[in-house]
Specification:
This protein is mainly beta. The chain folds into 2 domains: 58 residues, no CATH class; 141 residues, no CATH class. It has 1 helix and 15 strands; from the N terminus they run βββββββββββββββα. The longest helix is centred in the last third of the chain and has 9 residues. The model has no long low-confidence stretch (mean pLDDT 89).
Length: 206
């Protein structure tokens, strides 16, 4: 859960969103000096308290042309994850999630042999589709260079309570001290063949 601290739009072309993440209600990160969250313009006084974690996330979402032409555009998400406290936390798990309707029950993933070293593949991609031909669905992809020297993976899940299918791109990396990390990933509707071709063409960030 996040507090949205700023949004700026460029018509229908792009949106910039800045958020501060919450360690909701429990200080699960066990920060020595946790920051109590702000709700409605004042310090939170509910029980249990909500805490602000020492991280900010800036997301710029904008359309990029799909070379295959169907659909005309894919969504590119450029994100900057920033740690604002001079402390050592250790490895941080990154999860880039896609959610699709329950009717999308056909899986697609590439490459299929991961988790694997980011040096072994230029990309990681996957999603859920409505038909065996995988002509209608939703996929996500990222360049493996988001995590140089690390491992990348993709995983599927079916949520029977909320009746949705989800796919997750994942990795792990430390972000210690006052530092930030830039990330990029893509959301691709339409046929898997087009999404896969796009993922394979992603630039090598290493």
């Amino acid at each position: 859960m996040s507090q949205v601290t700023g949004i700026a739009c460029e018509g229908t072309q792009a949106a910039d969103i800045v958020t501060v993440m919450l360690d909701f209600n429990h200080n699960n990160g066990f920060y020595k000096n946790p920051l109590i969250a702000v709700w409605g313009g004042r310090i939170n006084d509910m029980v249990p308290l909500s805490y602000s974690s020492p991280y900010t996330l800036e997301t710029r979402a904008h359309w990029v042309p799909n070379p295959a032409g169907e659909p005309k555009y894919y969504l590119q998400l450029n994100e900057r994850f920033t740690h604002v406290a001079d402390e050592k936390i250790g490895p941080f798990s990154y999860d880039f999630a896609q959610y699709a309707p329950w009717e999308f029950n056909v899986r697609a993933i590439s490459p299929e042999n991961c988790p694997c070293d980011s040096s072994q593949t230029r990309y990681m991609a996957g999603g859920w589709y409505q038909d065996e031909g995988r002509t209608m669905g939703l996929a996500v992809a990222m360049p493996s260079g988001n995590f140089p020297g690390g491992k990348v993976e993709g995983g599927f899940n079916s949520d029977y309570m909320w009746r949705n299918r989800n796919f997750h791109l994942g990795s792990s990396e430390s972000l210690d001290g006052i530092s930030s990390k830039a990330l990029v990933w893509f959301v691709m509707a339409g046929p898997w063949t087009n999404a896969l071709a796009f993922a394979r063409s992603l630039p090598d960030l290493k």
